[in-house]
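Hi everyone,

Forwarding the result from last night's run.
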Amino acid sequence: MDGHPIDLSTWPRTDQFRFFRSFERPHFAVTARLDVTGLLLRAKPAGISPYRACLYAIGAGFDRVDALRVRFKGEDVIAFDRVDLSMTVPREDGTFGYAYLTWMPDFPAFDAAAKDQLAQAAAGRTLSPNSTRLDMAYLSCLPWLDYTALTNAMPDADDPIPRIGWGKFSKTAEGFDMAMTVEVHHAIADGRHVAEFFAAVQDTLAAVSR
């Protein structure tokens, strides 16, 4: 992926970056509820997959929020123009594999590519993780649970890859909603960036559901 190095001598966030790099547990997770009424009552009857629409909306969130595309390795900090999406894909035997998707602003094109890649991952037999790339975001859906909080397994305190989780669609008095969680390294992002991400995802879900 295309990216450019960040000069720590001029980056406004350098102090925060170095401060949170000293933490034993530098990741934080925020869970919010998103409205999926239109997704279930309009988009799904029109033939749109709610799951793939969520993948697309999450990709749009990363596209909109620059801070969530920043990665680091040691003291090298890189701002990527785009990050790919890696999501867990369940298989019939109860295990799971990983699929890898490139986000595209054109939803029909993204949807077609996602459908194909998800089917290939579901039919595979190996885990096939790609843990060497920094220009990634990790996604995982928990459709069995309407949860209130979520954390992820982290290999170490310097893992810079954001994790996104989302749960079961739940009935509300007004329609339907779901929990979504963003877990991110505090050295690269703050609560404001996470709030911007949630807003972008919600806006995109609404756009897909019109």
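The chain has a mean pLDDT of 96.

Cheers,
N.
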